Automatic annotation (TrEMBL), chain A:
<keyword id="KW-0808">Transferase</keyword>
<dbReference type="GO" id="GO:0097354">
    <property type="term" value="P:prenylation"/>
</dbReference>
<dbReference type="Pfam" id="PF01239">
    <property type="entry name" value="PPTA"/>
</dbReference>
<feature type="region of interest" description="Disordered">
    <location>
        <begin position="1"/>
        <end position="21"/>
    </location>
</feature>
<dbReference type="GO" id="GO:0004663">
    <property type="term" value="F:Rab geranylgeranyltransferase activity"/>
</dbReference>
<comment type="function">
    <text>Catalyzes the transfer of a geranyl-geranyl moiety from geranyl-geranyl pyrophosphate to cysteines occuring in specific C-terminal amino acid sequences.</text>
</comment>
<keyword id="KW-0677">Repeat</keyword>
<feature type="compositionally biased region" description="Basic and acidic residues">
    <location>
        <begin position="9"/>
        <end position="21"/>
    </location>
</feature>
<dbReference type="GO" id="GO:0005968">
    <property type="term" value="C:Rab-protein geranylgeranyltransferase complex"/>
</dbReference>
From TrEMBL, chain B:
<dbReference type="GO" id="GO:0007264">
    <property type="term" value="P:small GTPase-mediated signal transduction"/>
</dbReference>
<dbReference type="GO" id="GO:0005092">
    <property type="term" value="F:GDP-dissociation inhibitor activity"/>
</dbReference>
<dbReference type="InterPro" id="IPR018203">
    <property type="entry name" value="GDP_dissociation_inhibitor"/>
</dbReference>
<dbReference type="GO" id="GO:0005829">
    <property type="term" value="C:cytosol"/>
</dbReference>
<dbReference type="GO" id="GO:0016192">
    <property type="term" value="P:vesicle-mediated transport"/>
</dbReference>
<dbReference type="GO" id="GO:0005634">
    <property type="term" value="C:nucleus"/>
</dbReference>
<protein>
    <recommendedName>
        <fullName>FAD/NAD(P)-binding domain-containing protein</fullName>
    </recommendedName>
</protein>
<dbReference type="Pfam" id="PF00996">
    <property type="entry name" value="GDI"/>
</dbReference>
<dbReference type="InterPro" id="IPR036188">
    <property type="entry name" value="FAD/NAD-bd_sf"/>
</dbReference>
Length: 334, 503
């Protein structure tokens, strides 16, 4: 699925188009059986390589053919010569660029590109990164591109200053989130980078980084409270805290933030759910830390939720009954 | 001569004036198979929507303008004396040239003179009689020098009399697409929408991304704005809100239901819904305006408006004329014309130069009518700035919200191919007489232009002319540009007249 593009309605093909399609299918089937025949006979020649190329241009999803192609390449004489191998693999990357245009989301193609890069005697990781930049610019939520980006970054860190690369990547996710705060890939990549950045930081810097993260989350929540990305990131941030003490501090901060938001907008479904689950979490981490008044607030909130979000009434009733048993308070949802 | 060839012929429709409305009417009538004669008494297209080079603008002010429609034109040329760089001339200073109602009409220019130098001196010669302090053409004073310098880039200006933009999902764009004109008229996105107040210029955040990335809004302000965008822009949700609120003003709805005030209220009410200073807009209409804006975003990129290149409205009017000519209509420009009811009572007699033409129906721009009454009054300012203050390669709408009024502004640069590189033009307009609104226009320009200086500022007062008691249903008058920023009202007016004519 491509985001932000209009779907073009399918139209009935004309006779010419039908004929064209049939001929194309015949050509494809012939090519397919030829390649499979060559493979069965263990032919590893440049002719066979060329045949796989033609076939893969038509269909990127034939993983058997991708595998066969790799085997042929490794068995060619040119493979043994570093210079020749370099030029062969560079050609391969050019071929893959053509394939990317046909089908940007083919797992096999991306797998093959990673292989080609890792076999390249002199890989060009910076070049790869600018390719990924271009792809993400075209579709900021393409997770293949994001996945490949992480692969490239990991290799880049072997050749360049790893810390600087991490910082650059972190800034890149900030820019992507600013472009679209519902971009889950960007939030996810951020969560992959943050632990390393925190691990390197001293205490004051650590606090500053966490403060920035909090501000970013707040910003996203106030912009769109019903979008789940920032809430999930908040949960994840809680998970990576080193001690329960830190977690409780973060939870208290979060509860205060949700209350502030609810003052502005008392019937926001997501903030209401978050409020209840944060209290439940707090009670689990530190029994006795949730006051009676707060417990009652939770039970009331669950009742409100049942009213504003009737599709999930059963879920709220269930949470309400579980919490009333745990906290030994009256269940208002019954 | 054209009128000799046309003498004695008869047409289904004669259209006088080549403004946007007349051009649309003429082209639609021609497309419907009517025989059309389209005449303009001036040697240029566009009527009240015309666009000119700088010298052309001066020539228009001196020779061509209709004194009932534009009674006052004042031109202020900045005179920055050498070694006195710091002194910034105030816009409210005495104008350098006042071209009033009673000034003589100068003779039309000699078309043989076209070299840059002579065009510039020609413009200066024309303006000289209107100088407020004595000015000598042979020994140019500082104002004349400044003007001559500006005129060096004369050809790079396309200055519009009535600048307007097109709403991306509005009637004008739809019409351009339907008529096929959209394939060759060029547009540029109006990239930003600014709120201008006395304490500064701020971009109006229009989308979720803008709001998220904004550093000038507090979290609570972000939430409030998002609520307006998601609730009001949604037809279903806004319906519920309107029903709940009852018959209230849009401003009250924003203040009470959405808790907007200060700059947020100004941004939504003035910059997006474009509610005027003394305009009363109810909640339902306000929500419709927001929806019009929001649904326009995303059609041609993230912006809601498009700005025509090479002189906007005038260029579009010419395209409709071209379409009309292709359908077989006849065009006559720069020829005196008058219309009388025919002696036999059927249709009209059109005198064109020495010739006479019969017309079944007539549509005319109201400046062609002999007796008119004055309708809406607008005060306009056109300000050439020495720097691109709101971005170098961009176009923007801006709205000045002051304590005494709200001014609409359009900012254009080289991006529209109508301004030389390194300069910009700020158009500002407001309803009401120039005498009462000049200070407000000056405030709006000063608040927007930042550190840039105004090289030349032209003020004018324009009147929409109404024709009292129309003689017949077969003669219809158009009204010309109004105070709105988009071209849709012109299309609506033109289309309802077209319907009347075609029956």
């Amino acid at each position: 699925m491509m985001h932000g593009r209009r779907r073009v309605a399918a139209k009935e093909p004309t006779q010419d188009e039908k004929d064209e399609a049939r001929q194309q299918l015949e050509r494809y089937c012939a090519l397919n059986s030829r390649v499979m025949g060559l493979k069965a006979q263990n032919v590893f020649t440049t002719d066979a390589l060329d045949a796989t190329r033609q076939l893969l241009e038509l269909n990127t999803e034939l993983h058997t053919v991708w595998n066969y192609r790799r085997t042929i390449m490794k068995k060619l004489d040119a493979w043994e010569d570093t210079e020749k191998r370099q030029s062969m693999l560079e050609q391969e990357l050019g071929f893959l660029m053509k394939v990317i245009r046909n089908n940007i989301k083919s797992y096999w193609m991306w797998n093959h590109r990673m292989w080609a890069l890792s076999q390249l005697p002199q890989p060009t990781w910076r070049g790869e990164l600018s390719l990924v930049d271009k792809l993400i610019g075209m579709d900021a939520r393409n997770y293949h591109a994001w996945d490949y980006r992480r692969f490239v970054i990991a290799r880049l860190k072997d050749t360049e200053d790893g810390d600087a690369v991490d910082e650059q990547e972190f800034a890149f996710t900030t820019a992507q989130i600013n472009r679209d705060c519902a971009n889950h890939s960007a939030w996810h990549n951020r969560s992959k980078l943050l632990p390393a950045i925190l691990a390197r930081a001293d205490q004051p810097r650590r606090e500053k980084v966490l403060q920035t993260e909090n501000e970013l989350i707040q910003n996203a929540i106030y912009t769109d409270p019903e979008d789940q990305n920032a809430w999930l990131y908040y949960d994840w941030l809680l998970d990576i805290q080193q001690s329960d003490e830190d977690r409780i501090k973060l939870l208290r901060g979060k509860i205060a933030a949700i209350r502030e938001l609810l003052e502005l907008e008392e019937d926001g479904t997501r903030p209401l759910i978050e409020l209840v689950s944060r209290f439940a979490e707090l009670g689990r981490l530190q029994p006795g830390s949730v006051s009676d008044a707060e417990k009652e607030e939770c039970m009331k909130t669950l009742c409100t939720l049942k009213g504003v979000d009737s599709y999930h009434a059963g879920r709220y009733t269930d949470i309400s009954s579980a919490l009333s048993k745990r906290w030994k308070v009256h269940d208002l949802c019954v | 001569m054209a009128e000799r060839e046309l003498d004695g012929q008869s047409f289904d429709l004669v259209v006088l004036g080549t403004g946007l409305e007349e051009a649309i009417i003429a082209s639609e009538a021609a497309a419907a198979g009517k025989s059309v004669l389209h005449i303009d008494r001036n040697p240029y297209y566009g009527g009240a929507y015309a666009s000119f080079t700088l010298s052309g603008l001066i020539e228009w002010a001196v020779c061509h303008r209709d004194h009932r429609q534009v009674p006052i034109v004042e031109i202020l040329v900045s005179t920055k004396a050498e070694g006195e760089e710091e002194r910034q001339q105030q816009l409210t200073d005495q104008p350098t040239f006042v071209i009033g109602k009673n000034s003589q009409r100068a003779a039309a220019p000699n078309p043989a003179e076209s070299a840059t130098g002579s065009r510039a001196s020609e413009a200066l010669r024309r303006l000289a009689p209107f100088a407020t302090n004595s000015m000598c053409v042979d020994e140019p004073d500082s104002a004349a020098k400044a003007l001559l310098e500006l005129l060096q880039n004369d050809r790079n200006y396309q200055i519009e009399l009535a600048p307007k933009v097109a709403l991306c999902r509005g009637r004008m764009i739809d019409l351009l697409i339907d008529s096929g004109i959209g394939e060759y008229v060029q547009f540029r996105g109006v990239e930003h929408n600014y709120l201008v107040r006395d304490n500064g210029v701020e971009r109006v955040p229009e989308s979720k991304e803008d709001i998220f990335a904004s550093t000038t809004l507090s979290l609570i302000e972000k939430r409030k704005l998002m609520r307006v965008i998601t609730t009001v822009a949604d037809q279903e949700q806004s319906k519920a809100v309107i029903e709940q609120a009852g018959d209230v003003l849009f401003e009250k709805l924003l203040r009470e239901r959405f808790k907007l005030d200060g700059k947020l209220l100004d941004a939504v009410l003035r910059c997006v819904a474009r509610v005027g200073f003394n305009e009363h807009v109810d909640a339902a209409e306000g929500c419709r305006r927001i929806q019009r804006y929001v649904t326009s975003m995303g059609r041609y990129g993230r912006m809601a408006y498009l700005c025509g290149l090479y002189g906007g409205g005038s260029e579009i009017a010419q395209s409709f004329c071209r379409l009309c000519a292709v359908a077989g209509s006849t065009y006559v420009l720069g020829e005196k014309v008058s219309v009388e009811p025919a002696n036999d009572g059927a249709g009209f007699t059109v005198s064109l130069g020495e010739g006479t033409i019969k017309a079944a129906k007539v549509v005319m721009d109201s400046t062609y009518a002999s007796t008119v009454t004055h309708g809406h009054v607008l005060s306009r300012a056109i300000c050439i700035l020495d720097a691109p203050v709101l971005g170098e390669d961009t176009t923007a709408l801006a709205t000045y919200v002051g304590s005494s009024g709200v001014v609409s502004m359009l900012y254009v640069t080289q991006a529209t191919m109508a301004v030389p590189k390194g300069k910009s033009i700020l158009y500002a307009w407001v309803e009401g007489q120039l005498l009462e609104n000049k200070v407000l226009l000056c405030h709006a320009i000063s608040a927007t232009r930042g550190n840039a200086s105004a090289l030349l500022t032209l003020f004018m007062e324009t009147h929409s002319l109404e024709v009292a008691g129309s003689v017949s249903d077969d003669i219809i008058h158009t009204k010309g540009p109004d105070a709105t920023v988009d071209l849709d009202s012109a299309v609506t007016a033109a289309q309802s007249i077209t319907e009347l004519i075609l029956g």
